[in-house]
Each structure stands twice: as structure tokens, then as C-alpha cells.
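Section 3.1 - Work completed
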Amino acid sequence: MTAPTPSLRDLTAASFRIGCLGFGGPAGQIALMHRIFVDEKKWIGEDEYLHALNYCMLLPGPEAQQLATYAGWRLHGVLGGVIAGALFVLPGALIVFGLTWLYATLGTTPIVAALFYGIKAAVIGFILEALWKVGKRALKTVSDVALALLAFLGLFLFALPFPLVIAAAAAIGLARSFAAAPMAGEAPKAAAPEVGKSFATALGWAAVWFAPVISAFVMLGPDHVLTRVGVLFSKLAVVTFGGAYTVLAYLQQQAVEAEGWLTAPQMIDGLGLAETTPGPLVLVNQFVGFMAGWDADGGGLVLAIAAAAMASWCTFAPSFVWIFAGAPFSESLRRSRFAKGILAAITAAVFGIIAKIAVAFGLAVLFPAGGFDPFSALIAVGAAIALIRFKANIVGVVIACALAGLLRLALPGAA
């Protein structure tokens, strides 16, 4: 049995609590929302929650924030969805902004550099843990392994565009679904939603999403850093299926290699910051936007704030489009074997994408200036063992690795 619909004030308080306590990545955040919305408050039923989660797993972008938006929408319509989705992000975004500002101003001091030396190595452990989790879920057949290998080779050896890799995986998944026999007892199609109403909703929220990007384009031109940040993160919002580490593959390809807004080690630093704060891991996007504005010609704090805000907006605003316009179709998508087949293929490809990130970041961290760093490797292996074998707390692992970086600074011969 579910409790009566909460007041808007109660929903706001619960959403703010989730935003402040949402450590541990998507899995931890999804579990936290289940404990509060389903177990504690009993505002949403178990089946309804799982239904919403299944739908959000089919969407590009941060699934945990989308789930929070979906829950708010179910409880209090569009206003509830906006409140729940925004408060899921806001506490962590404010903390990441403050830490990024400190990083940009103090990142060259020896003590700060030593702390981030340990955090960089910890990030390698986080990526190895993600590989372990995704591999157990995604690599179920020989064709899944082949998809993962092709995705890795396409990105690492041939530098294929990230959207092309995702589109190819989706096409293979659709082809596999057509080739498979219909599932016995497959559920009938759900009632058709109001297509016209959903389309109008999508257009309205898409206009809200793109308004800052269009404004920057008109006022500053297509080559200004604000416009380029908005365009990149808007593209990223529609092609990054499979979680935050999938985002990193495209982000590294574009922000580091194509745009040159920051270096690979700096991006690993940003990921380390995002790992230690509540909220979605893709808050690393805000870090990238800040650094792009900070280091741009004529940049500084004001432009960095604007670019960070643009990156965050274009990362999280699309969730309102997917939820408010797409939720009426969610039952049909959940029942469709074609949607499930596409998601399964993309999930397999995600393993290869994360493997590419592991190799690229591993080379940057473990082989600085071309030479192997055994101390960094030791920290990375220790972090991976703590996370995978002992299920250690993420924040505790980051702190321990940062302290290990300080220890290295104290060793004889340390730079």
C-alpha cells in the first residue's frame, strides 16, 4: 500500500535530503531514492518504482537524476519533477563548483598536487570497478564480447566518433532483436499515449534546454567558448547511454583531444572531485566547463562560472524533455523486445568504451612523461581491491588515496 500523495513541501524536503546524501554513484543514489520514496515514505509502490527505473535505463544521460525527476513528476506533475530533478543535482553542483575554483587557483601548489596525485590513481580503481560491474551485467554471450571488443578497437585504435560507435551498437541490437523469435507470452502493447500532447511538451522543454545555447550563439558567435561548451554538452546529452563512464569517452575525445580545454590528467582530477561529492558523477561535466572558461582567451572567474553553468544546464536540462514528454510512452518501451535488444547491445558496447577510458587514463596516470610510476600503480591497485573485493566506501577510498599521495611527497626523492 502506498501513502497519500505528499505535499509539495514534503517532496521538496525529501528531494533536498536525497541531493545531500547521494554519494556512491548511480547504484547508491537509486538505492537511496528507493529507501526514501518506497520504503520510508511509501509515496511510490515497488512495481511503479521499478517501472520508472526500467524506463530511465533506456534513456541517454544520468539515469539517477532522470529517476528523481520521474518520481517527482508522478507525485506532483511537472513542478514536482522540476523540483526533484533540480534538487538531486544542486547540492553536489555547488560543492563541485567550490572545489573546482580552489583547484583552478591552488592546483599548482606541492601539497594540492600531491593530493591529486593520489586521487588520480584512485580514479583508475573506480574505472576498474566499473568494468567489473558492467562486465558481469553486459557480457552474457559471445556476440556481446565481440561488440565490446569492436567498440574498444573503434575508439582506441581508429578514433571513430563516439556517436557512430553508439549508433552502430544500437543498429546491431535492433538487428539481433529482429532475428530472434518473439518471446513467449510477451505482454500486449500498452494503450497509445497522446502523441500530439507529448510532442508539444517535447518541443517546449527542448526550447528551454536550447535557449542558453542559442543565446550564446547569437550574442557571442559560434566560435566563442560558451557556444562551443553548450553545443558539445548538448550533443553529449543525446548520445551517452550506459552511465557516467560512457560520458567520459566522448568527453575525453572532444574536450581533451579536439578542443584542448584541459589535459587528460586534469580531467581525471575532475572525476576525482565528482567522486567525493553527492550527486551524479557527470558533475565532472561542470568541472570541464569551468576549466574551459577559466583558461580561454579573456577568461577568468566570470567566464568560468558561465561555462560551468552552461555545461551543467546542457547536461541535466535534457532529462526534463525525456521524462515529461516520454513518460507516457514508458510502458510501451518497457514491454518492447526491440528496445530491450537495443539497450542490451549498447550495454555490451559500453564495456569496450569503459575499457578504452581505462587504457587512456591508465597511460596518463601510470606512465607520466613516458616512464612507469610504481607508487601510482600501487595506489590504483589498492583502490580497485578495496572497491571490488571489500565494497569499501567511495569517499573513504578517495581520502585514503589522497593521503597516500601526501605520503609520496614526504618520501626521499619525491618531486
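Second construct:
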Amino acid sequence: MEDPSKGTGSGRPDPFPGTVSTETGTILARSENSAPGVAVIDSDERRPDALGDRPTTGNGKAMAAMGFSQAVDNSEGGLINTFFPLIGAAFGVGESMLGLLSAISKFARMIFGPFWAMLADKYGRKKILILVTGVWGLWTVASGFAPNFTWLLILYSISVIGTVASEPIINGLLPDLFKQSQRGRAYGTIRAIGTGVGIVIGPAIGLFAMGDNPDGDAWRYAMWTMGGISILSGVLIAMWVKDPRQNTAREDMMAEAGTFKVADAVRLFKIPTVSLMAGMVVLVTSLVLLAFYPNFLVVERGLTIFQATLAMSAFSIGAVFSSYLGGRLADVFVRKFGEKGRIMLMQIYLVAFGATVAVATQIPYEGFAAGTTLSFLLGLVFSIGFSGCVLPMVSNVVPRQLSATAFAMLFSFIQGGITALMALGLGFLAEAFSSQMMFLWFVVVPYLLNALYWTLFYRTYPKDVALQKERTALVEAGRF
């Protein structure tokens, strides 16, 4: 028998059986000099230095391009909400149609987010990003030429199908550009860039509607400008983003977070905390508030459209601080009260946000100063519960490989679907009565009821955390 260590007749050494587990899956490997065993691999060509100690460099421009892309996509929905008073006047429609436009964007996120991710897997993530972020901006430009509301509805619906694509694709691309120890900072940097650019884009485009009697076509100029910015973001991605893996398997791209499977989603309901979370998100109606709030500032509080864009930027600035504050407050509550601390903080947050919404929408006032101040306060409270309580609690009770399934089920499917349906129906209520009434009964009251609902978590959450810790320990010991 021929000695395998001498190689084959073709001059190539025979591979020896063995595998190395990396962050992108399991790689067949051979040892150096064809000696039996498995070589030590600290990185692979698909994820440069993913497991190594050297920092990944040269991706600063890529982060800037992707952050800019997210800012553009996030700003397009706000554009319709802010400029709706001019759109309504131009086409003779009321707030019921604002609810319809808002619902369309939310349904698009539910349905087409996974669709674009699958196309990106098949044809390459950079190619799809350029398509949906850059080329797709032409549909936003076309929306500005709509001759009537029916055509605006059609063109805007097509445009938002692409708008929802960048976030899931970028989330899948980042692990290939940064090693594990750098990814938290990378995600945070892109979100910060996206938020910062978004804060500037809103008022900048709002300049088209300055004054008490803005040009009736200002919303068209805004659409054309936003479409042009979207095309620019596609150019930046083409120049600055490099996809290490042009064609990827869906299972490989999502290996670290897990993929969404219906069977897994159903099994997650056996965790009491997850079941309670599914009921809780029905009462989280703040996304409805954001859909109608800019129009409320203009129609019922006397701000100009340009002033409303500044007020919403103030809200965004407050929300940035809110995310940071929520995490820090949660740490304090957990140290002082244990696992029940997050539940206590969430109840405090729910009451505080409900009260803040009541002050901002139920107390009569007029003027830019009051509107901007109250909008900033809304933002300052807005994200405390989600960042400090909800997200960590879900992560603490579900197996790590099912975390993506849990988040998709709770927040993309359940909350996204309910919010879309509510926006569709509440637009008619706001038009029939007033946005002020709608905010009271469908934002303030649900948040106060939710604070009572969260009392149920005291019995389930600490037990579920303990059980998940046991499961994790068994997995690490190889006994699960």
C-alpha cells in the first residue's frame, strides 16, 4: 500500500479527515506536511481574520456607506409622514390615507425583508444593496411626478419595497467584514452614522416647505431630492463596500444568530416569558404614534412643515440618549433587585412614556418652542424600555441559536403586523375625530394597561432565566 504521507501520483498530498469549526461553519482541513491530524486555522478567506487577534482594518468607508444607506432608507418613511399635509391638500385626501401609506411601509418590511435577504444570498449582497439602495431610488423620484393620489400610492408602494432591504442585508454583511470582538462597535457605529445623517436629512429636505404658506409642490421636490440621495448611497456602496463572499448560503450567513423557522417559533411559545412577550407587543403602540405625530404637529399644534422636521430631529436626538440611558438604568436595577429589576424598570418606563405622550398630545399649546421641547422629551423616554428591558430579557430566556427566530417572531411578524393593521384603521379614526383623541385611547391607555400586564413577568421571567442558564451550562459541558 502506498504511504499516504508521500502524496498521490499527481503530486498532491492526500487530505486527511478532520474538521475545524469556525464562525462561518465547519471547514475540512489538512495538517501541514500532510501529517495525520487537523491543522490549526485562525481565520478563513470568507471572513478575514474572523478568529484572529489582528484588528480588521480598511472598512471605515464601508461603514460610512452602509450607515448612510440606512439613514436614507429610514428617512423615506418619515418623509411621507412629515409632508402629508401638503400631499393631502394637493390630492384632497385626509389622515385615513396617511394611515394607509404608513401601513404599506410596515407590511413591506414584514414581507419583503426576508425576500431581499434570500436574493442577496443567491446573487451577492453588494449587488442587491446597490440595486435596492441606489437604483431603486428612481422609484422615489418617480413618486414625485405622481399626477394623482392613486399613482402616488402605486409608486410609493413600489419604492418602499426596496427601502426595507438594506437593514437585513447589512446585518448579514457585517460579520464578514469585522472579527467577532469588533462587531459590537461596528453595529453601533453604523447605527450612529445612520441616526446622525437622518437627523440632518429631515430638516435639510424640510427647507423646501419653509414658511407659513409653503409651495404646494414642496413634497414633490422632497421626493426628488430623497430619490437622488438614495441613488448617491448606492454609488457609495459600489465604491466603498467590498463583499468578501459574493454568493453565500443562507444557513452560513446566519450561522451565528440562527435562521427563522416556523417549527422553532412555535416551540419558543413553550417558554412562558416569550408567550407573555407576544401579548405585550400588542400594547406597544408607539410606532403608531410616530406615524401620525408629525402631521399632528402641523395640523393641530400650528407648526410649519419645516418646523415639524426640526421637532422630529429633536425627537431623534432624544432617542439616541434614551437608548444609552436605558442600558445604564437596567444595569443599575439588575444590580439592586436582581432579575426582577428589568421588570420594575419596564413598568416605570411604560407609565412614564404614557404620561409623556399625554402631556405632549393632550395639553393645548401652539408654537415651535413647545413642540420641539416636548418632542425631545418624547424621544428621551422613547427607547428606555426596549433597549434596557425587552431586548435583554428575550436574549436571556431563549437558546442563543434561536435568538434570531425569537426576535423575528416577536417584533417583525407579530408587532409589525399588528402595527400595520392599527395604522390602517387608526387613520380613519383620526380623520373622523382627531389625532389627539386617537393618541389618548390608542397610545396612552395601552401603555398604562401594559404596565399592569407586566406584573405577570414577576412569576415567569426569573424562572426562565435560571432554566436557560442551566441549558447553557449543559451545552458547554457537552451534556445537553
